[in-house]
Specification:
Elements lengths: L1 E7 L5 E7 L11 E4 L4 E4 L7 E8 L1
Antiparallel strand pairs: 1-2, 1-5, 2-3, 3-4
Amino acid sequence: MKKAILHNIITGKEIKVHLTLNHPAALGSVAVWVDDDNRAYFPEDERNPFYEIKEISED
């Protein structure tokens, strides 16, 4: 499982997230970045102008 830190470039807030297909926002075979509260941010294959992905690791 891929894990990362999302850094909000406006607020400076950092959020621990992981990729999952087990979420309603996941479309087909495209995983979404999800936090510990199961809040989805954006799909793995897209970029979000408000977040940068930091510290990607794989378990």
